[in-house]
Amino acid sequence: MATGIKDRVAILSMGCSRFGERWDVGQEELMAEAYLEALGGSGIDPSMIEAAWYSSHYDDIGAGKAGLPMAQALRLPAIGVTRVENFCAGGTEAFRGAVYAVASGAVDIALAVGVEKLKDTGFAGLPPASRGTFAPMYLPTHTNPGNFSQLARAYGAHHGVSRDDLKRAMAHTSMKSHFNAVKNKNAHLRKAITIEQAVNAPLVADPLGLYDCCPVSDGAACAIVTTPEIARSLGKSAPVLVKAIQLVASNGWEVQQSDWNGAYVHTARIAARRAYAEAGITDPRSQLSFAELHDCFSITEIVTLEDIGLSDEGTAWKRMRDGAFDVDGEMPCQVDGGLKCFGHPVGASGLRMLYECWLQLTGQAGERQLGAPSLALTHNLGGAPAQNVCSITIVGAA
Fold first, then answer.
1. Using alpha carbons only, how large is the chain's radius of gyration in Å?
2. Residue 192 DSSP one-character state
3. Beta bridge partners of 240
4. PANTHER family attached here (predicted)?
5. What is the pLDDT of residue 183?
6. Pairing relation of β-strands 387-396 and 240-249?
């Protein structure tokens, strides 16, 4: 019987480019920036990489399809490169491919890279998705702020939270991430804001204001994975191990019947439950040290905290205002600044979250370093609350 991948794969090294308006470089240079950092800390020669996974969502913007853009940009040693795309969860999907390849015994060392060059598109938000057969049938008029404003309204209505109370909770969420990002040289936005600034910012999609929305950015992130035994043989005496990766894609349940109330993300609850079981976690609030959540909008972070069991239903908005998820709170979230301040280069975000976990768990986070974290979680969400791909990854010490 399958038992999952707990402790079968180690993160040998990671890298992350500076995120932001990177008019100075192309997609190839962003990938190289992240890859060279990871390679430099890995202790391996590039010829030892046996397989690679590449995440990029908007394939026609500066990159192209297939695995060629990554293979050529990084001059990989004539190996298989698989391009993956799973909406905004693509970065974690690339990591999952590399981890599964090592866990299966097919290869000893694998590479995962996520990248996106969005500023060149000229859009203030994400560019329109390819129409295909999916969007015209289910999402003919949707916008991302519109989708998540509906999540906020449903959450407030279901739990009896007034608009003003929810606005202040969302404002605290954004204030927290901006505060954390000031200490991160790779973040796009490195300026602190006040709760009043966030509350009084221009509306984008009521109740979401300007500071409730993450920006559009360019960026790349990278991971090199191997077995724990090889990692130790390369001098990594206490490598970060993968405890669990679970990914769930909506099967249509949310929109095809009336049981879903729109106040939570169904897939997040399933993915979290399975990830905790795979990692052997029975009490995530006491066992996890910190979390990196997919805060594309501030309301997403609040709802996710309940979906993954880090707060009781209907309480996260209040605990957020009380500081429970601040960097010095009970469960620090978005210690690096999150999507809110890194922006969201779609194919890269999942790996960027893991990069912060790896830095913290190996004591390399500099002035952002938490005390002595032992277990961290990332939540990577692609799509809208009603239809999405959600992944939960848990990494930690041996």
1. 20
2. -
3. 11
4. ACETYL-COA C-ACETYLTRANSFERASE, NON-SPECIFIC LIPID-TRANSFER PROTEIN-LIKE 2
5. 96
6. antiparallel
- What's the pTM? 0.95
Q: Are strands 218-226 and 10-16 parallel, antiparallel or unpaired?
A: antiparallel
53 phi, psi to nearest 5 deg: -125, 140
Q: Which helix (H) or strand (E) segment is 208 a member of? A: strand 208-209
Residue owning tokens 């996710």: 304
Q: State phi, psi for 132 to the nearest 5 degrees.
A: 50, -145
- Say if residue 270 is exposed, middle or buried (CB neighbours under 10 Å; 0-12, 13-18, 19+): middle
Alpha carbons 7 and 136: distance in angstroms, whole number: 43
Q: What is the pLDDT of residues 305-348, one digit of tens each?
A: 999 999 999 999 999 999 999 999 999 999 999 999 998 899 99
Report phi then psi at 88, rounded to 5: -75, -5
Structure confidence by residue, pLDDT tens digits, 124-160: 666 665 556 666 566 666 788 999 999 999 999 999 9
Question: Interhelix angle for 298-307 vs 163-181, to 10°?
Answer: 100
| CB distance 334 to 177 below 8 Å | yes
* Helix segments in the chain, DSSP class H: 27-42, 68-73, 90-103, 135-138, 144-159, 163-181, 195-199, 228-233, 253-256, 266-279, 284-287, 298-307, 316-321, 338-342, 349-361
Q: Answer whether 166's CB lies under 8 Å from 106's CB.
A: no
Rounded CA separation 272/270 (Å) = 6
CA quadruple 114, 115, 118, 124: dihedral sign: positive
